[in-house]
Amino acid sequence: MKKQLLGLAALAACLTLAACGGSGQAESQPAAEEKQPTAAQVVEAVSAELTFVDNMTTVEGDLFFDFYLLDPETVEDACMYTSGSRATAEEVTVIKMKEGEEISLAQEAADQRVEDQRLAYENYIPEELTKIDGAVTYTHGQYLLLVVADDPSPAEEAFEAQF
User: Fold this and answer.
1) Beta strands in 16-83 (DSSP E)
2) 14 lies in a domain?
3) Which InterPro entries match (predicted)?
4) Are the C-beta atoms of 102 and 87 separated by less than 8 Å?
5) Which of 17, 34, 78, 91 would give a disulfide with 82, using CB separation of 3.0 to 4.6 Å?
6) CA geometry: angle at 151 spanning 146 and 154, to 5°?
7) Which domain range does residue 116 map to?
8) pLDDT of 32
């Protein structure tokens, strides 16, 4: 009888401990992760919210690094949507760095790109300086967005909506 009581007590203790332990499901389920869109997806989404004067073309791959002086080893993904004829300074660029801490390098490259555009257009098509001077950049984690457009105001909301 004592053995049965001890057995029941041990069983009750095990059941109590198991019940206190929870199901374990919450611990094993990963937290909802932030979306990781491609640079091209972000460019497409942001560009869809903007109005451009010129026909635009996409620049990716090695050619991108002719416009942005970044070490390709630090860049995970990049896409530039820019004036196809170069008659306007219009541009939407997204740079995704491999490490979030390197986003300052992307910011420096974007600042340099805007300055290069200012120098290129000041004597070529000075009317474009209004767009260039109104260029905006936004960052989100590893991502940087640069927008040069007549009205870049819809860009930030469209950019943030990608994450």
Assistant:
1) 56-59, 75-83
2) no
3) DUF4358
4) no
5) 91
6) 70
7) 39-160
8) 57
